[in-house]
Structures are given as C-alpha cells and as structure tokens.
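Please, structure for the following, as tokens.
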Amino acid sequence: MRNAVLLLIAGLGLSGCMSMDSLSLGKSEPTETDYYLIDTKFRFICLGNTTQCRDMTKIVSSRSQLAPIEKAYGTPIKGPNYPVSLTRMLLNPADGSYTSSPAGTTGRYFKIPVNDKTQIAWDALGTIESGLY
C-alpha cells in the first residue's frame, strides 16, 4: 500500500499535475516599493505592488487631517467629492514636481513616485485610517 502511494505521488509529480512550486511555503513575487499605485476606481493608494494600501474615501470624515497634504501640494482638497479632488491632486500636482504614469491598459491604475510630497499624503492617510488623531 505504501509503495502504491509513493508511486502515485511520483507519477503525479512527473506528469506535471503536481508542481514542486505548489509545495514550497513562503515563496512570493518580489515586491517593488519605489512608487505608489493609485486605483482611480475605488480610490485606494498602495505602496508599490504590495498589499499595504490606504483608502482615500476615508478623508470625507477627516477634513482636519488634510492640512499637511494641502500645505505640501499648495492647494486645497475641495468638495463636494474630496476623494476625487485628492486623487487628482496626487496624479497631477499643481507645481508639476512629478508626473504620474498609467499602469496597465485600463486607465484605472496610475503610478506616482515615492517622494517628500507623496510620503506626506501617505502618512496623513495612514493617520486617518488608524483613527489616532
């Protein structure tokens, strides 16, 4: 019986039905963190291709926490749709200090660099999400 099980496992492995990659634990794609990825549909900003993301829709109830972003970008985040205003600000800063670039072909995702301005926005959004202000 034991030999039959070993033969079955060996046969599956050799036939390609079972990959050794599927058996390895903790293996993942390399991460990139030199940019932020903005999802314009759901208003999320993520650190590179990681799962570290911030929800920009939460700024609606935290207007007082937006001052650092507004100061860094030199322009107010305007209503009535604050998340859209923030997204536009991040994608196209008024001073032209950086540019965004499309990621993919759908027009939904954009990359912006990690720099002093974008880091301020990232940190402010983290503070808003944590509720510790």
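The beta strands are 35-39, 44-47, 53-55, 101-103, 109-113. The mean pLDDT is 83.
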